[in-house]
Model the fold of this input.
Amino acid sequence: MPGWGEIFADPVMQGREPNPELMGLIPGWHAAGCRLVLDAGCGVGRHLLPLVQAGFRVWGVDCDARVLELGKARLAHGAAPAAVSNLVQADLNRLPFAPGAFDLVVSVNVINHGDAATFRDYCRELDRVLKTGGHLFIYTSPREAGERVRLPQTRELEPGTLVDIATPDGALVHHFPTPAELREQFPRHKIHRWETVWAPIPFMGNVEMPQLIFWGEKGR
Done:
């Protein structure tokens, strides 16, 4: 089974376009006064450079050192060398930032990786480093997507937590939250968008799968 470093080292993966749902919200985030942005699970920098080019000060976190090196190269080659030092290797359930450090936190197709407790830890940390009044954008695979990647050998460790599934990293544990489960992690947030859409998954041959969008604004 390839690891994430190997998956993202593939030139096809490195050439993926930014998530259109995220890109479409940039004007609204500017209007809300967002300036300091964390890309939690930044990978090779699919969104780092577009966010820098949009005028944000951007930090990125990923757990894979190889992936981060590719991200640094992308920033350096994309005329954003100042942002290279803002890339940090860390686990999302232990983010190395102070509470309320960011105006905007984005995380695209990351928080599925782990069991239900890990999913909750990820969400807690995303919320912790977001300031009051800040914006949070999460794009992830919901329970409905998990049901579509089951194989005969798939094991369900707990509700929504599967291993041995039909994805390139399918031997790893994945948790697929229900929309309500994701909403429950952010009770203080005013909801701007919370819905499931269908979108192509590049590392699965662009087959369309349900994807859950959460855009919230952190209240007091």
